[in-house]
Amino acid sequence: MVVDLLTEWLKTRVQEAGAQGVVFGLSGGIDSAVVGALSRRAFGDDVLGIIMPCQSSVQDMLDAKLVADELSIPCIMVELDDAYQLLLGQYEAFVKIGNEEKARQVKGNIKPRLRMITLYYFAQALGYLVVGTSNRDELEVGYFTKYGDGGVDLMPIGALVKSQVRELAKFLGVPECIINKVPSAGLYENQTDEAEMGIRYEDLDRYLLTGEGTDEIVRKIRTMQKLSEHKRRLPPIPEL
Ligand SMILES: Nc1ncnc2c1ncn2[C@@H]1O[C@H](COP(=O)(O)OP(=O)(O)OC[C@H]2O[C@@H]([n+]3cccc(C(=O)O)c3)[C@H](O)[C@@H]2O)[C@@H](O)[C@H]1O
Ligand SMILES: Nc1ncnc2c1ncn2[C@@H]1O[C@H](COP(=O)(O)OP(=O)(O)OP(=O)(O)O)[C@@H](O)[C@H]1O
Ligand SMILES: [Mg+2]
């Protein structure tokens, strides 16, 4: 049973590290809900979900609270808007990005990195590990911010494609409205994973599980995998 296996895996990893529990970012999306539910099973009250709005929608915040309530996950909120604005103001005094789309991307990536800083503060203060929420699709094509949401200690759902995460969510009692929500990184208004990646989860899941897909889809995925190789490796060191 995959739930028992993942729960045991989490317990073993945390125990091996000499830690007491885990902390994670609670977004109101399905991935963090599943990670939260698994963590709750593994560690009881030694779990902390942190809601970290950074120009986030009110709906996401309400969804995150709903997940915490329904799954009885201890949870706090740390607002990152002021830190984000303060840093951005200083950065832009040196370099202001002319291209609108590029500016949106560069600015968007500040948010997961501020969340990473926040999670590590609480992890070390409490003797916890930082647990990530990336799934197999995101990891394979590099759909995550390097050292942002990718900067974590453990990735319990990293071997599961999105449809498998959905199955797990149903089993774990994640609220229906969270399971049916359109996946979004929430880094800018109206962002959706599928539109930004230019590929549907259904197609990505199918290719990763069976190797099948149209020529165009296969080509696209392989290109994304190649371009994001650096995100799945430690920084290269010259051999001397
Ligand atoms: N070949 C190479 N070797 C070594 N390093 C290389 C490199 N190419 C780029 N880099 C480095 O990587 C940086 C670019 O990577 P990165 O900073 O990650 O930036 P990037 O891959 O452009 O952006 C992250 C993507 O993931 C999405 N995202 C982020 C966070 C959460 C979620 C979500 O689903 O919730 C999605 C986000 O919307 C965006 O599309 C470059 O600035 C450069 O420093
Ligand atoms: N507002 C937020 N507060 C706390 N953590 C967040 C917030 N936004 C994103 N995160 C963290 O970043 C992770 C990556 O976001 P991502 O959108 O891939 O996952 P999700 O929101 O859980 O599910 P989905 O991909 O279906 O939207 C989240 O799972 C969560 O840990
Ligand atoms: Mg999300």
UniProtKB/TrEMBL annotation:
Annotated keywords: ATP-binding, Ligase, Magnesium, Metal-binding, NAD, Nucleotide-binding
Pfam family, one: NAD_synthase
Chain ranges of the NAD/GMP synthase domain: 4-235
Classification via InterPro entries: NAD/GMP_synthase, NAD_synthase, NH(3)-dep_NAD(+)_synth, Rossmann-like_a/b/a_fold
Residue sites binding deamido-NAD(+) per the record: 113, 146, 153, 230-231
Record GO biological process: NAD+ biosynthetic process
CDD domains associated with the record: NAD_synthase
Source organism of the structure: Syntrophothermus lipocalidus (strain DSM 12680 / TGB-C1)
Pathway info: Cofactor biosynthesis; NAD(+) biosynthesis; NAD(+) from deamido-NAD(+) (ammonia route): step 1/1
Gene: nadE
Keyword Nucleotide-binding: yes
Function in brief: Catalyzes the ATP-dependent amidation of deamido-NAD to form NAD. Uses ammonia as a nitrogen source.
Sequence positions that bind ATP: 25-32, 133, 162, 184
Root EC class: ligase
Protein name, UniProt field: NH(3)-dependent NAD(+) synthetase
Entry EC number(s): 6.3.1.5
Cellular component terms (Gene Ontology): cytoplasm
Transmembrane regions listed in the UniProt entry: none
Record note on quaternary structure: Homodimer.
Lineage: Bacteria, Bacillati, Bacillota, Clostridia, Eubacteriales
Family, as annotated: Belongs to the NAD synthetase family.
NCBIfam families: nadE (TIGR00552)
GO molecular function, one term: NAD+ synthase activity
